[in-house]
Amino acid sequence: MDTQGRTLVSFDIDGTLEMGDPPGPLSAGFVLRTQQSGCLIGSCSDRTIREQSAMWDAAGIVPDFVVVKNQLDSVRERFASLRYVHIGDTHVDAHFAKQASFEFIFVLDLARRLDSPCDSFGDLI
Ligand SMILES: [Mg+2]
Questions:
Q1: What is the pTM of this model?
Q2: Distance, CA 77 to ligand 1 centroid (Å)?
């Protein structure tokens, strides 16, 4: 598999995705377009694997990975990628991103750059 240029994007759920509780600024469509653009995508949340999987199911998205928050480093081990990014809304996200050597992007910083309903992650960063 060609991993040149591939980016892996991990999404927190609550406060980050529109499906979260509370809802965050990123839509399911944004996640889907990001995946369709060639990124690996998945979730890394305080929710159980079962809850996260049910959320993806309801959104009609098949994620490449689903992990609990302190297991982000396992994603790095499983997937060869050029770039590893975690998007979240709290300092806890920032902490676990750093621990797993992921770049951390604060979701509101990312949402501010959204200016088209067709944007995906690659259009913004
Ligand atoms: Mg959150």
A1: 0.94
A2: 23
- Ligand 1 mean position, distance from CA 108 (Å): 12
In CATH, the architecture of 7-119 is: 3-Layer(aba) Sandwich (3.40)
Q: What is the whole-number distance in angstroms between the Cα of residue 66 and the centre of ligand 1?
A: 15
Closest CA to 32 of 14, 48, 12, 56: 56
Q: Where are the domains of the chain?
A: 7-119
How do residues 22-75 score in pLDDT, each as one tens digit? Answer: 999 999 999 999 999 999 999 999 999 999 999 999 999 999 999 999 999 999
